[in-house]
What we know:
Blueprint: H1 2-41, H2 50-87
Helix pairs in contact: 1-2
Amino acid sequence: MPxxxxxxxxxxxxxxxxxxxxxxxCALVVGLIISILQAxxxxxxxxxxxxxxxxxxxxxLTVAGPWMLAQLVAFATxxxxxxxxxxx
Length: 88
């Protein structure tokens, strides 16, 4: 029985990692590009990275959102489907 809970915890953490990867990687890339532009132009405005990151993350969530939701629903469905066998 404890192996089941450890397995569920592993699957949950892996799913959280997979679902958060696209927005985090997008923010990382956009932040890196803006930082390089700031370094080359010597514009040291701290708030300059916020708006491009926000738009990029919204775009990524718009594109990858249905896939992310499908992954989450599939995980919840499998979790609820296997629940009765382990309650006994």
